[in-house]
Amino acid sequence: MSRSVLIEPVRVETHxxxxxxxxxxxLINSQLLDRCDLLVAILWSxxxxxxxxxxxxxxxxxxxxxxxxxxxxVLIFFCDRAFPHSCDLTQVQAVRDFKDSIKSNGLxxxxxxxxxxxxxxxxxxxxxxxxxxxxxxxxxxxxQATQSTEVVFLPEANTILAAASMSxxxxxxxxxxxxxxxxxxGDIGLNITGEQRSEARWExxxxxxxxxxxxxxxxxxxxxxxLPKAGFxxxxxxxxxxxxxxxxTLQSGAYAYVDFHKIxxxxxxxxxxxxxxxxxxxxxxxxxxxx
Length: 291
Known about the structure:
By secondary structure, the protein is α+β, with helices and mostly antiparallel strands. The chain is built from nine helices and ten strands. The protein has two domains: about 120 residues; about 160 residues, no CATH class.
């Protein structure tokens, strides 16, 4: 959440579709590998069936992904739990052979219990994300008529946009007083007036939003700012992340339903959001692919 990064698990069962014209594994790889930043392989008693180029489809996926995205983005886990009596011993040996073949590269992590795997996976994921994200925070694209520029948002910029957009009159105000400056997004005060470090951080976030075209000076004196169309679109992306994380914290299980009004019980940025706003943002989230 500190980086405003949403990680989406991509699997064959949910993100591929039936096509013709090649080996099944080649077709699957062409649909999935290019769109992913990390590959996670969890192996126990089966390695899979051979393909045209490798011992199994799993091995082919790992090899191709490693070659195109880098070995540092491949996380391989081997379960050391006892094998079931019904398992295919040929497959068990294939897993062992593959494990031996990559041992010299130090590319895998062993585990025994599910809880142990959870802890190891979280640790490895954090390390991998540090490698993927050269710098932190949320990445958005500001499209212009002649070019497209990638912008790494400051946390303050994220908060200004999200807080401003939840107000009934979305705007940002920068008031300059003898005691210092006060920055408010909607009805929410964000900085500590009179503390120069806090003022500088929040004004930096405001300036970044201006530079991207996500906030517009309404009076040309840099006192009142309104959200243009591009600002609302990026704010919707931020709320997609915020609401998804809220739903995840409320879920009792992976497929459990979450009551609509439960999402409102804990205030966002210290304020309870309205029914109308929540319904609008959950509709936007659905259009963006949340289920």
